[in-house]
């Protein structure tokens, strides 16, 4: 195979939700190859999330990007998905008396079209009857938190990419990257070679590894492991109408997962990029919290996993051209918000590539190219 066999306009490395969204948008502008090292897309962070759309989660930049994705997620283009991408869930935050300040902070994030309201402890227990009433002094409810159909979002981008003439290549772990003859030349473990003048680094936890292969300075990405478990509920107890629940002052949270509960200790342990697995200690921490916060007895963990949330120093994503390398764009640092931000970040990436500006709705939300720029982290 020669390089010319796989000459495109854009190479996107990593077919998680971020790379899929960027590839989908870039395919409007030219020939895209989306390169994925695993046998299929979605094996890493994208396939391991809690699947919640929480507009009020993350810092100012993240919250604006969450909001910018919302119109698409609520009303995707015809044929994108067969079912709604978002379904109502709601989110309940409970607090003991000493954590009143956390409830006030949460309430302060509410606003027009973005409701967060204080409810009584009795109302909280009415919503989620397994909660221990004696542990709740204050509670706040966010009705607009939603469940995301992550698979439908991811597959929608990939199907749309194919419909626009782009190509997903799996089993194509990138092993070497070089700028030659006005193009990025990329070699893969399977022997395939690809070239294009523009390269998008959407390799998730491996983004600094990809940068290093291209000879670039790191953005200081830190992958952090987060654990999740699924526990069964007693027979006859259906959580389907319950909101997600978290407790101020504790990192743990739970949410309904069909007829069971998905719960996480909210761990954020820095680790090298890899195929992370849950640690027993983290599983024990969340089981202990479930027993303290609710009347459940956690006898058996039905399922458990761990995934990576990758952050840079200021916890905002990194999107834009590397000023030290022509045609090399970063799309990294999505932290714990990468599914809900994916649509906005894909559009942002394509707009920066095509016009060197961010889409108008994103700037109108208060996000500037400097907020996202890769070199902000190297100053
Ligand atoms: C427990 C947990 C809960 C979460 N909850 C939420 C939530 O509720 N809401 C939310 O929005 N987000 C959540 N997240 C975060 C979200 O999952 C991530 O931000 C998002 O999936 C990141 O997507 P990505 O495409 O950037 O990364 P990934 O999905 O990891 O994709 C990167 C891809 O790059 C590929 N790759 C790496 N190196 C190479 C190479 N050399 N060659 C080719 N391919 C390569 C990898 O194989 C991988 O498929 C959660 C994460 C975890 C772990």
Structure description:
This protein has 379 residues and is an alpha+beta fold. It has 2 domains: 3-51 and 150-219 and 314-377, 3-Layer(bba) Sandwich (FAD/NAD(P)-binding domain), CATH 3.50.50.60; 91-144 and 222-311, D-Amino Acid Oxidase, subunit A, domain 2 (D-Amino Acid Oxidase, Chain A, domain 2), CATH 3.30.9.10. Helix content is 27%, strand content 26%. It is built from 10 helices and 21 strands. The protein has helices at 17-26, 60-74, 100-108, 121-127, 150-163, 207-213, 280-293, 338-355, 360-364, 369-372; strands spanning 10-13, 32-35, 52-53, 86-88, 91-95, 117-119, 138-142, 146-148, 167-169, 174-180, 183-188, 193-196, 198-201, 222-231, 244-247, 253-257, 260-264, 269-270, 301-311, 318-321, 328-332. The strands form 4 sheets. Strands 5, 6, 7, 14, 15, 16, 17, 18 and 19 form a 9-stranded mixed β-sheet that branches. Helix 1 packs parallel to helix 5 (150-163). The two termini are 42 Å apart. The relative contact order is 0.20. It binds flavin-adenine dinucleotide (FAD).
Main sheet specs: 9 strands, mixed
Please identify the structural class as seen in this structure.
alpha+beta
CATH fold assignment of the largest domain: FAD/NAD(P)-binding domain
Tell me the total number of β-strands: 21
């Amino acid at each position: 195979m020669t390089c010319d066999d796989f000459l495109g306009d854009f190479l996107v490395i990593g077919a998680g939700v971020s790379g899929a969204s960027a590839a989908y948008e870039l395919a409007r502008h030219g020939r895209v190859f989306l390169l994925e090292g695993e046998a299929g897309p979605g094996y890493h962070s994208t396939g391991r999330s809690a699947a919640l759309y929480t507009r009020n989660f993350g810092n100012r930049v993240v919250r604006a990007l969450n909001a910018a994705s919302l119109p698409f997620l609520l009303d995707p283009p015809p044929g994108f998905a067969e079912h709604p991408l978002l379904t109502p869930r709601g989110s309940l935050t409970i607090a003991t008396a000493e954590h009143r300040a956390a409830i006030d902070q949460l309430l302060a994030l509410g606003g027009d079209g973005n409701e967060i309201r204080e409810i009584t402890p009795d109302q909280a227990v009415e919503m989620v009857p397994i909660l221990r009433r004696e542990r709740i002094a204050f509670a706040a409810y966010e009705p607009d938190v939603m469940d995301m159909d992550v698979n439908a979002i991811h597959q929608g981008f990939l199907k749309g990419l194919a419909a626009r003439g782009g190509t997903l290549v799996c089993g194509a772990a990138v092993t070497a990257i070089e700028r030659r003859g006005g193009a990025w030349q990329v070699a893969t473990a399977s022997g395939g070679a690809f070239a294009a003048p523009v390269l998008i680094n959407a390799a998730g936890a491996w983004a600094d590894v990809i940068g290093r292969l291209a000879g670039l300075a790191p953005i200081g990405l830190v992958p952090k492991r987060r654990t999740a478990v699924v526990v069964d509920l007693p027979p006859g107890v259906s959580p389907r109408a319950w909101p997600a629940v978290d407790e101020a002052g504790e990192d743990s949270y739970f949410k309904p997962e069909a007829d069971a509960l998905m719960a996480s200790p909210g761990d954020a342990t820095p680790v090298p990029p890899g195929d992370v697995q849950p640690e027993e200690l983290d599983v024990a921490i969340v089981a202990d919290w479930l027993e303290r916060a609710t009347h459940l007895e956690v006898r058996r963990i039905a399922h458990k996993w761990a995934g990576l949330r990758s952050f840079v120093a200021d916890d905002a994503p990194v999107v834009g051209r590397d000023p030290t390398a022509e045609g090399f764009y970063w799309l990294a640092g999505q932290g714990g918000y990468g599914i809900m931000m994916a649509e906005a970040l894909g559009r942002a990436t394509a707009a920066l590539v095509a016009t060197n500006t961010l889409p108008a709705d994103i700037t109108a939300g208060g996000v500037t190219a400097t907020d996202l720029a890769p070199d902000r982290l190297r100053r």
